[in-house]
Amino acid sequence: MSWYYQDGSQEFGPISKTELQELLKAKRINGRTLVRNITMDEWRPLVEMVHGTPPVDPQRRPVRPSSASSATAESVHSTDITVCSQCGRSFPHDQVISFNNQVICAACKPMYVQRLKEGAALPGVMNWAGFWIRLGAKIIDGLILGVLQYAVIIPMGIMAFSSMSDLSGDLSSSRPFMFVALSQLIAILIPLLYNTFFVGRFAATPGKMACRLRVIAPDGGRISYMRALGRNCAELISGLILLIGYLMAAFDTEKRTLHDRICSTRVVHKQS
User: Fold this and answer.
1) What is the CA 106 to chain-centroid distance, rounded?
2) Contact 46, 54 (CB under 8 A)
3) What pLDDT score was predicted for residue 59?
4) Phi, psi (degrees; rounded to nearest 5) at 215
C-alpha cells in the first residue's frame, strides 16, 4: 500500500511502508507527522496509524467511530508517544528506556546492549577519535613499521653492495639496481599490507588497538578488506598535500581526515 506524509506545507509520496519506517529510523518524521494512504480522505498523525485507526469504507468515507473507539483514541492522544531510535516504531513513554540520549524499546534493548559490549558505535552515541589520539596511534604504527621495513631494507642493501663489489667495477650489470628497486618495492608493500590486514581483520592497526580506537563504516560496522585497502591508498593523498588531509581531523565535526571522507569511514573510541 502506498503512503504519503507531510513535512511542513509540503506533501511527499507515494512511498512504501518500509520506506516510511526508514524515515522514522532516520528521525525525519515522528509520531506526530501527518500521514495518509490511498484509502483515506484525511491526514492523520502517524501514531494513530501505529495504534489503530477507525475503519474506512471502499468509497473512502470514514466510518463514524463508536463511543468505545472514541475512548481509545482519546487514550492514545493523552499518552506520551515516543519513537524507538533503533527500530523506528512508536511506543508509550512508559514502555521505553532512555540511554545515552537514545530512546530504546524493550525488543531492541538486548541488541543495543550487546552492540555496546562489542564496542560497536551506535547512531547518536559515536565517540569520535580526535586529532591528537590518532596522532599517537600513528606514531606507534610508524615505529612498528620502521622496524619491519629496516629488517628487510638493510639486508637488501647489504646484498646490493656485495653484488657491486663482486662485479669489480662492471657498471653494465643491472643486479645492484634490481636489489635497490626490490627493496623500495618492499618498503611500499609492507605498510600497505600492514594497514589493510589489521584494519580489515580487526578494525584497527596495532597502534589504534593500543589507543583503543576503531575504524568503522558510517553505520558502525566493520569495513571490508577492499575498503581498508582503498583507505590506505587514499591516505597517501592526505600525506602528499603537506599533511593537510590529516589536519582536517582537527576541524571536522566527526574528526574525519581526507582519507576518511574519500572512503566514508570514521575512527571512534572503542567502548569498554
Assistant:
1) 24
2) no
3) 46
4) -100, 125
Could you give the angle at the alpha carbon of 223 between the alpha carbons of 221 and 227, nearest 5°? 155
C-alpha to C-alpha distance for 22 and 8, rounded to whole angstroms: 19
How high is the pLDDT of residue 49? 66
Question: Which pairs count as long-range contacts for 49-56, CB under 8 Å and 24+ apart, including other chains?
Answer: 50/89, 50/90, 51/76, 51/90
What is residue 255's DSSP assignment?
-
Q: Are strands 3-7 and 10-15 parallel, antiparallel or unpaired?
A: antiparallel
Q: Where in the chain is the domain with CATH 3.30.1490?
A: 1-78
Number of neighbours of residue 103 by Cβ within 10 angstroms: 17
β-strand 81-83 against 44-45: which pairing, if any? unpaired
Q: Which DSSP category does 80 fall into? A: -
Closest CA to 216 of 200, 193, 194: 200
Distances (CA, A) of 223 to 83, 197, 202, 227: 29, 11, 10, 6
Residue 250 CA to residue 30 CA, distance in Å, equals 34
Low-confidence spans in the chain with pLDDT less than 70: 1, 9, 26, 38, 41, 48-82, 85-86, 88, 99-102, 114-125, 163-176, 272
Q: How many helices (H) and strands (E) does the chain have?
A: 10, 10
Q: Determine the Cα–Cα distance for residues 209 and 60; give it in Å rounded to an integer.
A: 61
The correct answer on CATH 3.30.60 for the domain covering 79-117 is yes
List the one residue out of 125, 100, 116, 121 whose CA is nearest residue 272: 116
What confidence tens digit (pLDDT) does each residue in 125-167 have? 578 999 999 999 999 999 999 999 888 888 877 877 776 666 5
Cite the residue boundaries of each domain of the chain with CATH code 3.30.60: 79-117
The domain over range 1-78 is classified in CATH as 3.30.1490: yes
Most distant CA atoms of the chain, gap in Å:
108
